[in-house]
Amino acid sequence: MKSSLPHQFDTACIHAGQHPDELFGGVSVPIYQSSTFAFKSAEEGAARFSGKDSGYKYTRLGNPTTSALEACIAELEGGGIGLATASGMAAVNTAYMALLGCGSHMISTDSVYGPSRTLMEKEFSRFGVETDYVDTSNLDKLKAAIRPNTKLVYLETPANPTLSITDITEAAKIAHTAGAVVVVDNTFCSPMLQRPLDLGADIVLHSMTKFINGHSDVVAGILVIRDKTLAARLRNVLSQTGGTIDPHQAWLVLRGVKTLSMRIRVAQENARRLADELVSHPMIASVAYPGLRTHPQYKLVEKQMKGPGSMISFELVGGVEAGRILMNSVSLSTLAVSLGGIETLIQHPAGMTHASLPREARLSAGISDGLVRLSVGCEAYEDLSHDLFSALDEVRRQCPGESTMSVTG
Ligand code: LCS
Questions:
Q1: Catalytic pick from 117, 151, 195, 210?
Q2: What's the sign of the alpha-carbon dihedral 367, 286, 156, 385?
Q3: Taking a C-beta distance cutoff of 8 angstroms, is the pair 215, 256 a contact?
């Protein structure tokens, strides 16, 4: 696919949306830590509020540091308008609120980040929005779920935490035929590995808390939209509901994103090697990793993504109890939720990130009680491997019973 980026991706991570500060020449974008902006005259203030003058007015509505970040991520996604938010969930909420209303219907990937589903089930349902959760990796199921009032098709691919993959191009065709808007949560890939707008999506969404910032020190989100009318609609909802990012937070993400491509290359290489070793370990019952040839959608991964990324989910022989021993036995990998940071994190979706879902819904979305999720970081491979496989030895010691091996990919 022909890139619409003016620079190579690695270059754009460092420079997109940024230029030396005009006042002193500072190379790093200044942090405009100001809630409000002075007008030179009453006339100038009025012109800004009427839209005749595009200058800044109030940070909830726009801020120069935030604008630099929005321009940067929009360019990395291949062009569009960026809207940075206070968290990934603020981006999800903005999309739901802008696109749905009483009597409308949404179809969502069943295995999405837990709160993206709970927000809809507990809150938006109160306002008369209906949702079907389907395995969107199966396009027939997606097609069958379409209704005359379907306004939004919400895809998460790779999905959290099952790593199942939805064909964005084909799903967008189905949604567009029905007149629905397509949102893709691209958090697991970052724009380095997948560019949903180029594949037919209308809106791409990220928790920038993850790979884009990459240092587990900021909570932030973003929406990128190419259609100007749709972008204006989302901007209105965002600025009125107050989910705007803070300028200091925006600056931290701008600093983090500069190393995005380097971090992803190292983490992905570590993940590939770990996944290869995990599949042949006797205590592992199944491994889900998009880079394994045994992944059920391996061909689609090759077509749609530029690399398999660094998230691995696996099931241990011995289920929940074995997972508990593993998580308590690692020492370099940190037992924590979140993902996409420079450090390796391990967690238990059923008890942690997806605990808000009723068990039945969770199981039907493929998130079993014993699934363990690993967000592989940039540590030296030998150290990571030693930590994980020593912990697996401990599992074997405390919880014997070997696998007959069923790699689900
Ligand atoms: N979308 C995805 C795919 C996510 O994984 C998360 C957070 C969000 C949206 C929400 O972003 P936030 O508001 O936290 O910035 N995922 C988390 C996870 O898997 N563990 O902890 C948070």
A1: 210
A2: positive
A3: yes
CATH, domain range 261-398 = 3.90.1150.10
Residue 210 known to be catalytic: yes
Of 109, 193, 207, the one to substitute when testing ligand 1's pocket (max ligand atoms within 8 A of C-beta) is: 207
Q: Residue 399: its pLDDT value, please?
A: 81
Measured in Å, residue 302 CA sits from the centre of ligand 1 at 25
298 is catalytic: no
32 catalytic per annotation: no
Q: Residue 25, by phi and psi: left (phi above 0), alpha (psi -120 to 50) or beta?
A: left
Does ligand 1 come within 6 angstroms of the Cβ of 353? yes
Q: Tell me the best of 96, 187, 311 to mutate to test the pocket of ligand 1, counting ligand atoms within 8 Å of each CB and taking the most.
A: 187
Question: pTM, whole model, 2 decimals?
Answer: 0.95
| Phi and psi, residue 393, nearest 5° | -60, -40
CB atoms closer than 10 angstroms to residue 45: 16
Regarding the beta carbon of 118 and ligand 1, being less than 6 Å apart is answered no
Above 60 in pLDDT, residue 409?
no
- Tens of pLDDT, residues 32-91: 999 999 999 999 999 999 999 999 999 999 999 999 999 999 999 999 999 999 999 999
Kindly report, as residue ranges, where domains of CATH 3.90.1150.10 are found in the chain.
261-398
What percent of the chain lies above the pLDDT cut of 70? Answer: 96
Q: What is the pLDDT of residue 1?
A: 40
Q: Look at residues 216, 257, 267, 242 and name the one whose alpha carbon lies nearest to residue 73.
A: 257
Q: Which of 110, 167, 185, 198 is catalytic?
A: 185
- Asked if the model's pLDDT at residue 3 lies above 60, the reply is no
3-state SS, residue 321: helix
The answer to whether the CB of 87 is under 6 A from ligand 1 is yes
CATH architecture of 9-257: 3-Layer(aba) Sandwich (3.40)
Regarding the beta carbon of 187 and ligand 1, being less than 6 Å apart is answered yes
Q: Where in the chain is the domain with CATH 3.40.640.10?
A: 9-257
CB atoms near residue 209 (< 10 Å): 24
Q: What is the pLDDT of residues 99-146, one digit of tens each?
A: 999 999 999 999 999 999 999 999 999 999 999 999 999 999 999 999
